[in-house]
Design a protein that fits this description.
Rossmann fold, six-stranded parallel beta sheet, alpha/beta
């Protein structure tokens, strides 16, 4: 089995996340994609983040009609900071010995990856996949990718996908401005945001 792990704050989840997961599912021939809403990421210390149970509920609502999409509450339920290497080692233990795990994240992480805790342990348990993010040149990202590969003696998979410049920050701002967001977030997520008056 080939399992993709897609982490993120998902505050809120939007159609860009779902598009990415679907593309990764087909390009990498994955059997399933597990969405991992972040718990208490150290790099977002001091920033206001919606309660984990609500972000989990929104992800669950967004993916419920796709039989190959799943959501994990591991980081949300975990005490203390959430480190990627710990999450991936935990997820790896739940798989069979011959299963492959793919960690999917934005290519902008290639700038910050040297600050990640125990990055070598991440490369040991999974295949590292990065997808293109708007605002960066492909050439510069490929140079950074090569540098990381050489330093850590690993191979990084690069997904050059359609540029969907949608962000959760943009969505939260548009909610405050009263915009109709039904075209860029799943209707089920839009319903939860309206019912609970999130991001107002």
């Amino acid at each position: 089995m080939k399992v993709g792990i897609l982490g993120g704050t998902f505050d809120p989840i939007h159609n860009g996340h779902l598009y990415l997961a679907e593309e990764a599912l087909h390009i990498l021939a994955l059997d399933k994609v597990v969405f991992m809403p972040s718990g208490n990421p150290p790099h977002k210390k001091g920033k206001s983040i919606t309660d984990g149970s609500l972000r989990y509920e929104m992800v669950n609502a967004a993916i419920r009609d796709n039989e190959k999409f799943f959501v994990s509450s591991y980081e949300i339920d975990k005490n203390g900071f959430s480190y990627t290497y710990e999450t991936l080692e935990y997820m790896k233990m739940s798989l069979n010995k011959d299963d492959e795990m793919y960690f999917i994240t934005g290519a902008d992480c290639l700038d910050q990856i040297y600050k990640w805790k125990n990055i070598d342990r991440i490369f040991n348990v999974c295949k590292f996949v990065v997808f293109y993010r708007p605002g960066f040149s492909v050439e510069s990202l490929m140079e950074k990718k090569k540098k990381v590969e050489e330093q850590f003696k690993t191979e990084i998979i690069f997904l050059h996908l359609l540029e969907l410049n949608i962000s959760s920050t943009y969505i939260r701002e548009k909610v405050r401005q009263g915009y109709n967001l039904s075209y860029i977030i799943p209707p089920s997520v839009n319903y939860i945001i309206k019912e609970l008056n999130l991001y107002i």
